[in-house]
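Query structure, 192 tokens:
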């Protein structure tokens, strides 16, 4: 199998995608490693073709962003660099295939593009699910309030019904002997 056609596991590529400035990006050192070139070669090609990499395609990390990123990934595989890493958005990664013309770079870029598309699809799917759950939560809150009112009225009706039954029972009981009292009537002419 040729070196250019080596398939890199998607998980390995996905671990190298970071969210910086609200964008999913890949760093120059990671891309160089995936492409099988030195980081300085990748950076030289980018600098020679800087007009192909506007700010929404590629940007250099600030010292603060770099420190935050290092604290997130714990290991310092990006450490020791004299310059801040370059971060490439999805479009920037796509543009890299036009400046790095190796077959391996093209093959890796195709794989990365497919992964970006999968990530976007998953994000949209999860976003739809979250929106549906939020709608349900909203309606369940609305319904919960209505259900509570219904239960309140049902309890009041039940209480009124019990009160009515008790009053009816009391009314029916008027004229009867009080509880525990037994009337004794003597019959004349009979002996006990």
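Result returned for the query:
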């Amino acid at each position: 199998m040729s070196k250019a056609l080596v398939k890199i596991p998607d998980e390995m590529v996905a671990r190298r995608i970071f969210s910086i400035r609200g964008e999913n990006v890949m760093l120059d050192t990671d891309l160089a490693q995936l492409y099988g070139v030195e980081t300085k070669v990748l950076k030289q090609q980018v600098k020679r073709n800087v007009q192909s990499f506007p700010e929404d395609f590629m940007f250099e990390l600030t010292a603060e962003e770099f420190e935050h990123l290092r604290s997130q990934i714990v290991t310092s595989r990006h450490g020791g660099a004299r310059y801040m890493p370059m971060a490439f958005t999805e479009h920037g990664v796509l543009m890299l295939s036009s400046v790095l013309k190796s077959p391996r770079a093209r093959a890796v870029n195709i794989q990365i593009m497919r992964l970006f598309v999968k990530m976007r699809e998953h994000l949209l799917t999860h976003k739809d699910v979250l929106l549906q759950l939020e709608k349900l939560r909203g309606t369940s809150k609305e319904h919960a309030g209505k259900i509570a009112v219904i239960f309140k009225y049902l309890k009041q009706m039940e209480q009124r019904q019990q009160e009515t039954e008790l009053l009816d029972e009391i009314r029916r009981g008027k004229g009867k002997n009080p509880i525990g009292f037994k009337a004794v009537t003597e019959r004349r002419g009979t002996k006990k």
